[in-house]
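Hi support team,

I'm filing this because I wasn't sure whether my run with NAP finished correctly. The job status page said complete, but I'd like someone to confirm that the output block is well-formed before I use it downstream. Pasting the exact inputs I used:
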Amino acid sequence: MISIIVAVAENGAIGYQGDLIYHLSADLKRFKALTTGHTVLMGRKTFESLPKGALPNRRNIVLTRQQGVSFPGTEVYSSITEALGHCTANEKVFVIGGAQIYAQALELADELEITLVHDTPAHADTFFPDYKNSGRWKLINSEEHQPDEKNPKPYTFLTYIRQ
Ligand SMILES: NC(=O)c1ccc[n+]([C@@H]2O[C@H](COP(=O)([O-])OP(=O)(O)OC[C@H]3O[C@@H](n4cnc5c(N)ncnc54)[C@H](OP(=O)(O)O)[C@@H]3O)[C@@H](O)[C@H]2O)c1
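And here is everything the job wrote out:
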């Protein structure tokens, strides 16, 4: 089971200058709740953006094309295929970014867990690939939330499965 998890703005933006654009408390909590106890797969740049390194209580997998590198608390592979080859059939693998890895994993994923932030940021340099117009994804859950003191923008949790 491969699930893509992402927080994305209305224009598809997901990052700027190596960091996230939004830090919504509810999104971070949902990310933790969904991924804890499972496997997280990420690109080398996303790993390097994590403030405390490998995410606790999860199997962390990092993708890089560099040979002979290691990152504390992670397994390192040189392709998505190689990484998935080291996962078992009943393991839930969350693809947690960034843009390069999302683009390559979209065709392999069974599920999308999207936090759609109802905003268009002034600055962005990384974007989630278009998924809405492919006709491949069926929306099975949608949960709208208004902004509050911990979540400055309105947002909707969306779950899609491959159809
Ligand atoms: N909004 C969100 O939910 C979210 C989530 C995650 C990340 N982000 C943001 O996205 C941005 C980072 O995304 P990004 O696209 O620049 O980088 P990325 O996808 O995190 O990492 C790219 C790196 O992954 C490695 N890589 C890519 N494809 C590979 C493959 N097929 N096999 C092996 N290694 C591969 C390469 O590492 P080497 O160069 O070492 O070879 C490449 O430079 C940041 O701004 C981050 O904050 C946002």
